Amino acid sequence: MDPILIHVPDTLVTSRLLLERHLPDTGKDLYAAAAASQPELAQYLDWAVDGIFLEQVESHVRRQSAQFTLRNELNYRILKRSDGSTIGVTGFVKCQWDIRQFEIGYWLATAETGNGYMTEACNALLETARTALQSTKLILRCDTRNVQSANIALRLGFELEGTHRRFRRDAHGAWTDIATYGLLT
User: Fold this and answer.
1) What is the longest distance spanned by two Cα atoms in the chain?
2) Which string of DSSP letters, residue by residue, matches the chain?
3) CA 176: distance to chain centroid?
4) Total number of domains constituting the chain
5) Which neighbouring-strand residues pair with 57?
6) For residue 103, is it within any domain?
7) pLDDT digits (tens, 9 = 90+) for 133-159
8) Domain for residue 6, yes or no?
9) Could you read off the pLDDT of 166-185 as tens digits, one per residue?
10) Burial status of residue 69 (CB atoms within 10 A of its CB: 0-12, 13-18, 19 or more)
11) Containing domain of residue 157, as a range?
12) Do the beta carbons of residue 33 and residue 90 sit within 8 Å?
């Protein structure tokens, strides 16, 4: 089946969170969360290294909206149900529809870490992967220095499959290693 014909929910709901697909003109809220977290995000994410700018975020949100429609990437912004604030992003950053394998990516506003929000959001993704996407395997990758991210993978039941040494350089030019976690679904 052509992936564009597969129904993928636009919204996922958990007890504390609302995950909504990116839509045009929602970049402002996402920008606020990302800009406030830029120093921490820049440690692990290339796009945050040179600063975070509103126009750049809105452009990204619009591209992500199109990618969702085309089923190339399925990303959601994370909102707290209690106040509607945007606190991060999660989703399927790589979709291999032919083998039903999907890679999860995410980031969370620094002020919101340590509250279990990302584990909760990723649990919603796991359920969507198993049901709507009929996944066979999920992948999660993170910088080996990012212990919080690795702990999320382990809490979700992923297993370490290997480490890619000298995978990329960080903002200071130092080599970093990337751990790959997998979960058969």
Assistant:
1) 44
2) --GGGS---SEEE-SSEEEEE--TT-HHHHHHHHHHTHHHHTTT-GGGTT---HHHHHHHHHHHHHHHHHTS-EEEEEEETTT--EEEEEEEEEEETTTTEEEEEEEE-GGGTTSSHHHHHHHHHHHHHHTTS--SEEEEEEETT-HHHHHHHHHTT-EEEEEEEEEEE-TTS-EEEEEEEEEE-
3) 20
4) 1
5) none
6) yes
7) 999 999 999 999 999 999 999 999 999
8) no
9) 998 887 788 999 999 999 99
10) exposed
11) 11-184
12) no
Q: What is the pTM of this model?
A: 0.91
Specify the higher pLDDT residue, 76 or 172: 76
The verdict on residue 120 lying in a domain is yes
Q: Which of 108, 30, 112, 117 is nearest to 65 (CA)?
A: 30
Q: How sure is the predictor about 49, in pLDDT bands with cuts at 50, 70 and 90?
A: low
CA distance 171 to 151: 23
Q: What is the CATH number of the domain that holds 137?
A: 3.40.630.30
Question: Has residue 4 been placed in a domain?
Answer: no
